[in-house]
Amino acid sequence: MKIKFIITALIGLLISTTSCAKKTETTTSMEENKDSKILVAYFSATGTTKHVAEELAEIMKATLFEITPETPYTSADLDWRDENSRSSVEMHDATSRPAIKDKVKDIEKYDVVFIGYPIWWYVAPTIINTFIDENNLSGKRIISFATSGGSPIEPCIEALQKQYPNLDWDGGKLLNHTSMKELNIWKEQLGL
Questions:
Q1: CA–CA distance, 25 with 20 (Å, rounded to integer)
Q2: Disulfide engineering: 116 pairs with which of 3, 44, 145, 178, CB 3.0-4.6 Å?
Q3: What is the CA radius of gyration of the chain?
Q4: How far apart are alpha carbons 153 and 146 in whole angstroms?
């Protein structure tokens, strides 16, 4: 009886994960808060980072921008065990810059930019590099946030700081299963 329950729960989890991935492809890329000087930009392959980004934008009273790949990722593309999958190929090529569908409007109006992503191979996915390369983030306070199945965020932050040493990086936080209360505490710690 317990095995039947566990199998049913796992199937439900797989279906909801697949559903989240498909919903990500059809959402609008930008929800603007006209008074905000804070931008929460995020890439989410399966919906996990999206959920966190939405809550963070709400707490920060920020504009929300989804970094949407021009060519959406399929389940096969995300198979990290397949060395020929799209994500594996991209992550093994430091010069990879997957194309982004939309651009941030009026990037110059933001003082603080949160950049969120799932952790792939201990670093940010290369689509984050595309976002940084395509937007002038000079003079802005940049804060990373990530979701992960077990990797820490520190190597991601270090890699981004090394790749973009002229930007004003202000640390970051791993936001797995983070409550609104914890996000409010982080907001206070950041002085926002």
A1: 9
A2: 145
A3: 17
A4: 7
